[in-house]
Amino acid sequence: MSTVATSQIKLTPERSRTSVRSRLQDALPKIVLAPSFAITIVFVYGFILWTIYLSFTNSKTFPSYVITGSRAYQRLWGWTFDTDPPSSWYTSITNMGIFGFLYILICLALGLFLAILLDQKIRGEGVLRPIYLYPMALSFIVTGVAWKWFLDPGLGLEQTLHQWGWTSFHFDWIKNKDFVIYTVVIAGVWQASGFIMAMFLAGLRGIDGEIMKAAQIDGATTFQLYRRIVIPLLRPIFLSAFIVLAHLAIKSYDLVVALTSGGPGGSAWLPSNFMYEYTFKRNEMAVGSASAVIMLMTIVAIIVPYLYSELREKPR
Amino acid sequence: MLRKLLIGTALATSFAFSAHAADVKEVQMLHWWTSGGEAAALNVLKGDLAKEGYAWKDVPVAGGGGDAAMTALKAMVAAGNYPTASQMLGYTVLDYAAAGVMGDLTETAKKEGWDKSVPAALQKFSVYDGKWVAAPVNVHSVNWLWINKAVMEKIGGTEPKTFDDFVALLDKAKAAGVIPLALGGQNWQEATMFDSVVLSTGGPEFYKKAFNDLDDASLKSDTMKKSFDNLAKLVTYVDPNFSGRDWNLATAMVIKGDALVQVMGDWAKGEFHAAKKTPGTDFLCYRFPGTDGSVIYNSDMFGMFNVPDDRKAAQVALATATLSKSFQSAFNVVKGSVPARTDVPDTDFDACGKKGIADLKKANEGGTLFGSLAQGYGAPPAVANAYKDVVSKFVHGQIKTSDEAVTELVKAIDDAK
């Protein structure tokens, strides 16, 4: 009797304690997230708005807060069609197109291919996987400098092959204004494709073996298996990989600087290089801000519809 | 709790007041002279200030280079946290002065006689609105040739006096199987060389009109076209791997004897010194052919900020020490440049330094001392960089003819003005 009584007495405070605790538990995520939320609001979205504001002023070395109209955009618009000789802005945006397209495409293809090969239950996977993944651990600066030496005709690949006797070998893309952007693609792909491989590998491991077996029983060839079943099932991985690669492509400022220091006659510039050059080196802050806004708009224009179409299908 | 807070505040305030009363014996300095020779040169100044009881405090800059330092400075000034002084170049000083954040050293300048000893062309950047806002540290000049003497003797060359002589000399080197011209294919190096080409092709008056006054007619003129033609001719003498090369690697090619000559500012001399080479015996310094008597300069300045009163004494001490004859001599011997005042004895300088000092004096008196457009002393950064774009695009073939180059130059400069 007495034990029952005590337990009943105990029940009430415990219940109220649990309700406090559960309320706290409900609130805890909000409390923990609040600082980072506030920081993001100010330092990301606040400064986006500030940059948009600056792009409509005539800011030069220092920010100026008097709105003077859209002259910065007009200049950029004019430069967009300055193709002969190419203006720095025209070079930057065409390079962005070439680099972004090839970088994302090759990384996805190569990453998927490597992942499928590694997924064949081969021996030594535990050793091979980190080897491919490791370049991602390097900073862009290291990648850039290493590839700069490797691709330099006087130091790296070409010189070595010449010493080995293959004197007709010629590979000077990094010194060539028309091809230098492709060396940026090479270095970028080298760095990121291992990481993409790891993402696909995780996806492949998540595919239910039963489906594969069922397909094999139905007489599907390996190619059909991958083409019709595995790759469609990897769709969410494609989305994540695309987002990771797209933002890496757009922010590859340091790779261009370390690898090419801008390229011959500025022919390797990306919009991020343009933005930094104009804002900080040429003291044309308004033009720099305007180019940053255009970069943001481009990203929004690509990512938002894609996210929308991908996420709408699976309402959760 | 509240009382503790109050006491704390009171203490802090009184501390602040007492600190205000006494001068801060410290110089806060933002600079990017961190590599070997430059750091050694700056140690001379640190020592001079230590003798007067001022401690030296570097303002740390992540990333090292001048661009990173300027970004850091912008942030500091925007936050109202001025360093005592900062290393600055050309129009940056004037930009900050126009923003009203620079100090006033006119009194010290009068006392020390800077008005008379510092070349007038430099005062354009160190004096704003009649007030001294910066202390020039040195004068670099860019219209120099650096020649490997052994190679020169091997090919039997002599000092080129005209542009055609120079081309003939390069031809000789080419025939002997040496790379004639060591060039780093980065836009500032190409444009620095083009500064000299324009001065050589058009003469002092033309250079001034085109690259300091930005006179439209001169920029469009046939002389400018001829200058681009001459540049194109020089570019045919570089090795195929020149694009993107750093300037000091190009200098190393001359030092090692792989190349005959480099057209570069006098900071290249520092590389020769570091390799233990002596002017006259190992290497030769000539003025760019056809530019003797004129000097295209750039200059490092210590911009002096409008610091609180308790820091002013330290600032004056820094400025005075910077422009003292002993420091000007000691520093510039190490740095490879020449003193920013024309009354410093040249006894400690090597042959090239002596020539540099004499040339500067002559150019200052004759009115042929001009700011380098490539180095940001001819026009504001927006224009200077537009100019570098055009020159670099011409060198690398995006701009194909000199006619087109001239059109683009005028357009780019107008757009940036």
Walk me through the structure.
Chain A: This is Sugar ABC transporter permease. Chain A: InterPro entries: ABC_transporter_permease (IPR051393), MetI-like (IPR000515), MetI-like_sf (IPR035906). Chain A: Keywords: Cell membrane, Membrane, Transmembrane, Transmembrane helix, Transport. The complex is a heterodimer of chains A (about 325) and B (about 425). Chain A is an all-alpha fold. Chain A has a single domain, classed as MetI-like (MetI-like fold, Orthogonal Bundle), CATH 1.10.3720. Chain A has 13 helices and no strands. Chain A is globular, with a radius of gyration of 27 Å. Chain A starts with a helix and ends with a helix. Residues about 1-5 of chain A have low confidence and may be disordered. Chain B has about 425 residues and is of the alpha/beta class. Chain B has two domains: about 25-140 and about 300-360, Periplasmic binding protein-like II (D-Maltodextrin-Binding Protein, domain 2), CATH 3.40.190; about 140-295 and about 365-415, 3-Layer(aba) Sandwich (D-Maltodextrin-Binding Protein, domain 2). In chain B, about 55% of the residues lie in helices and about 15% in strands. Chain B has 19 helices and 15 strands. Chain B has helices at about 1-20, 35-50, 65-80, 90-100, 105-110, 115, 120-125, 150-155, 165-175, 185-210, 215-220, 220-235, 245-255, 270-275, 310-320, 325-335, 350-365, 380-395, 400-415, and strands at about 25-30, 55-60, 85-90, 125-130, 130, 135, 140, 145-150, 180, 260-265, 285, 295-300, 300-305, 340, 370. Chain B has a five-stranded mixed β-sheet with strand order 2-1-3-13-6, sandwiched between helices. In chain B, strands 14-7-12-15 form a four-stranded mixed β-sheet. A four-stranded mixed β-sheet of chain B has the order 9-10-8-11. In chain B, a hairpin with a 2-residue loop joins strand 4 and strand 5 (about 130). In chain B, helix 10 runs antiparallel to helix 12, helix 10 packs across helix 18 and helix 12 (about 220-235) packs across helix 19 (about 400-415). Chain B is globular, with a radius of gyration of 23 Å. The termini of chain B are far apart. The chains are: A mainly alpha (about 325), B alpha/beta (about 425).
